[in-house]
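Sample 3 of the quickstart, ligand BES:
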Amino acid sequence: MDIKISQDCDKEVLVINKFENELTSQELANQYAVEKDGFEGKLGTTYLLHTYGKENFAKILVVGFGKKEEFNETKMTEAVAKAMKKLAQIKAKSACFAFENVEEYGKYAVIGAYIGDYAFDKYKSEKAHHIDEVVFANFKESDVNEGIIFGEAMKYSRDIANEPAEYATPTRLADMASGLSGLDTRIYNKEEVEKMGMGAYLAVARGSAEPPKFIHMKYSNGNPKKRIAIIGKGLCFDSGGMDLKPASSMLTMRDDMSGAACVLGVMRALTSIKPQDIEIHGIIAACENMPGQHAYKPGDILTAKNGKTIEVDNTDAEGRLTLADALCYASELGVDEVIDIATLTGACMVALGSIASGVMGNDEEMIKKIIDTAKISGEKYWELPMFDEYMNGLKSDIADMKNTGSRYGGASAAGVFLKEFVKDVKWVHIDIAGTAFLEKPQGIFIYGSTGAGVRTLLNYLTK
Ligand code: BES
Ligand code: MG
Ligand code: ZN
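Result:
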């Protein structure tokens, strides 16, 4: 898909907007769609009409924008994504979007175009239809360019998370990270990770034939006034380990590296956006959780990088073990803020479904800022509690703590567990277990990875 800005709107399809209770900018559309057929313009609905040689474009697609007073960034993304799906359905090759009275939302329109156009058809003999040329007539060039970077970042991230585990191994993620230009990247192999004392992360990795890779990417530009680390859970496959998951729960566990895919997408985009005077670290403790001969076992006692000991209560609560060491590592970087993003708990999915991601942390102001950023980015984040009492369930008779406790309040228990490994830094944890990967289409997203976190983190880091 080639995206351009131009006033030359003579493409196959002209795409225009219609707010509820208003007319469009096009006489033909007003005559036929509105007056004759009563097209109301509810958000994301579309009406297609042919111009039969009366105009320089063969068709007009009217897109509903809903109520004018309720219109915002997210609605723009949704409306354009729906329009793109309609264009794909009619197998259009080119289209010009000439929206009126919404000049300030260019970035979110382009993001919508990417989401609506997305397909993961690498392994399909029959490929999806893509529109070759998309022209935007009434937006600022800088907004469109930013939208392209965000859209590309989401697509890149979704492609990685959609890949089978056979392809997206820890080594592959490390190679992808090393291949990103404009970043300072270091990959630590198993021996180096051992030397750093990451006993929790290494235990998880032990049952797999795939070697673990600890990935540290660094972006910096100018004199950093702020330094932030983002950590993505990178479980390339989560079988549950010795506490093996039932088949139905294991089926989509290739998505357990969605946090890592998000971090890769964000780091890659930063090299295009080039934010000034900021330093951003992207960290992934990549591995697989498998029940191989060397697998860690229930009852084992692990020592994390900060010296704290953990009794393994359940080998399927592996994400928090890998994140524990990554959080210790990030805390030692001397950054101002740490954000981790992880497909961490089924409990978060039970609480919020696939609609919202759970947010916890040790700094109310930072939590609020991230939730507010999600709102304009088109994602829904919801704060979950992190009361100290949740730690009671993780008491161990033989170690400093256990890795799991009661089934109830599982997302919060995971949150307080992670907190034990955060030192002297503001920190926010985002649980994307329910939102990262859809088992059936939802809204503007098709089956599979959604690129959860990419838009929000990019906005957070570059605003
Ligand atoms: N990767 C899973 C969490 C998950 C579940 C992500 C569903 C996406 C969809 C995580 O490692 C896990 O297995 N968590 C366990 C923890 C339990 C053993 C305390 C869970 O949530 O069941
Ligand atoms: Mg697990
Ligand atoms: Zn997991």
